[in-house]
Every structure is written in structure tokens, then in C-alpha cells.
Design brief:
This protein has 4 helices and 3 strands. By secondary structure, it is an alpha+beta fold. It has a 3-stranded antiparallel beta sheet with strand order 1-3-2. 18% of the residues are buried.
């Protein structure tokens, strides 16, 4: 069960990923949002109004529309694996956490 702050943070992180196409974050955060965003893409591939309304409930409106109208049609024939996590050699200076880039394939 996720707390409200954590759920909100993951929602914003997935929104940024959808809007920008790729983001750089920590490995743990990338691994956390990958299945969530992939489920959103799978849901958006259905292409009906009910799924658009579900997407609007789960992510902000503009990212829901982008998922529904731009991203999902690109993966119409693909069964899964819409995102890629690339681990980088960069670590954060203050705490040494490993960084990763997550992007759409």
C-alpha cells in the first residue's frame, strides 16, 4: 500500500516521463515507475473513451491525452516492453546513489 505522498510523487514522475519521453532519475525510482507506465500504455492501446477516462484518473490530463493519442498508437503491434532503463556511471554527489535513464523504446 502506498502512502499519499509516495503515490503523488510516482504520479508526477510518470507524468514527466510521458511528457518528455525520457528522464534521468535514480535506479530505484526508474524500476518503480516502469511497470506502472507500461500498464498505462497497455491500457491506452485499447483506444476507447472509457480507457481515456481511466487514464485521466491515474495521471494528469495532458499526459493522459499524450499517452492515448501519440504514444499508444506507436506500440499498437507490440505486446510489451515499451520502456528501457539504462544504468549510467554517474552517482549523485551528496549520497552516492546510482543514476539511470528511463526512456520509451
Amino acid at each position: 500500500m502506498l502512502t499519499g505522498k509516495r503515490r503523488a510523487f510516482l504520479r508526477v514522475l510518470s507524468h514527466n516521463l510521458v511528457m518528455q519521453g525520457k528522464i534521468q532519475t535514480t535506479e530505484a525510482r526508474a524500476k518503480e515507475i516502469k511497470p506502472k507506465v507500461e500498464k498505462l500504455v497497455t491500457l491506452a492501446k485499447k483506444g476507447d473513451v472509457a480507457t481515456l477516462r481511466l487514464l485521466i484518473r491515474r495521471v494528469p490530463r495532458d499526459s493522459a491525452y499524450k499517452l492515448f493519442h501519440e504514444i499508444a498508437p506507436r506500440y499498437k503491434t507490440k505486446k510489451g516492453g515499451y520502456l528501457r532503463i539504462r544504468k549510467t556511471t554517474v552517482t549523485r554527489k551528496r549520497d552516492g546513489v546510482k543514476q539511470a535513464t528511463i526512456e520509451f523504446v
